[in-house]
Amino acid sequence: MTKGVAIFVSGGGSNMRALVADMVEDHPARPAVVLSNNADAGGIAWARAQGIPTEVVDHRPYGADRPAFEAALNAALAPHAPDIICLAGFMRILTAGFIDGWAGRMLNIHPSLLPKYKGLHTHARVLEAQDAQHGCTVHEVTAALDNGPMLGQAVLKVAPDDTPDSLAARVLTLEHRLYPAVLRRFAAGDRTPVLLHA
């Protein structure tokens, strides 16, 4: 049975576009809805142009009341009945109350080789540490930040002349390969990690 996927974005949604581009006829999933906390997100405009249902839930009216914001997220998702959520540049940290309701059904992509460099500024931190390798990880989302079971990693070699910006661009190219490969396997019920190399 084909799984419906909700993709959460806050900006241009380049990973969302890569996921959607892969969800063609032989794929075990389909895009059920693209949701954003930002009405002006480029990813929302792109999804609408493709005929994909969209929802916008602006976090700002809720202030510090994250449970109320997350209740609105679930209400927006309900008509689309997704089976899986893919976070794809969604710039809001979700609470355990929301995450637990989607346990085992929510994926995220992070620009580091987890468990290294959880959180922000991963590319600069890799260079500061003089690491030989860098990359990205797709993992299940748990209440602990960037800490869920690993479902895939893509690895590249750090070049002597790399900057945080050049690394970010190179890793993003890998993200666009890794995330669709993991979702395809995950939606088919296979949680064997995907491993890619640049």
TrEMBL record:
One of its GO terms (biological process) is 'de novo' IMP biosynthetic process. It catalyses: N(1)-(5-phospho-beta-D-ribosyl)glycinamide + (6R)-10-formyltetrahydrofolate = N(2)-formyl-N(1)-(5-phospho-beta-D-ribosyl)glycinamide + (6S)-5,6,7,8-tetrahydrofolate + H(+). Keywords: Purine biosynthesis, Transferase. (6R)-10-formyltetrahydrofolate binds at R66, M91, R92, I93, L94, N108. It is an enzyme of class 2 (transferase). Pfam families: Formyl_trans_N. Residues 5-183 form the Formyl transferase N-terminal domain. Its EC number is 2.1.2.2. It comes from the Bacteria. InterPro entries: Formyl_transf_N, Formyl_transf_N_sf, GART, GART_AS. N(1)-(5-phospho-beta-D-ribosyl)glycinamide binds at G13, S14, N15. GO terms for molecular function: phosphoribosylglycinamide formyltransferase activity. Pathway: Purine metabolism; IMP biosynthesis via de novo pathway; N(2)-formyl-N(1)-(5-phospho-D-ribosyl)glycinamide from N(1)-(5-phospho-D-ribosyl)glycinamide (10-formyl THF route): step 1/1. CDD domains: FMT_core_GART. The active site is at H110. One of its GO terms (cellular component) is cytosol. The record marks D146 as: Raises pKa of active site His. Catalyzes the transfer of a formyl group from 10-formyltetrahydrofolate to 5-phospho-ribosyl-glycinamide (GAR), producing 5-phospho-ribosyl-N-formylglycinamide (FGAR) and tetrahydrofolate. NCBIfam families: PurN. HAMAP family: PurN (MF_01930). Belongs to the GART family. This is Phosphoribosylglycinamide formyltransferase. It comes from Sulfitobacter aestuariivivens. The gene is purN.
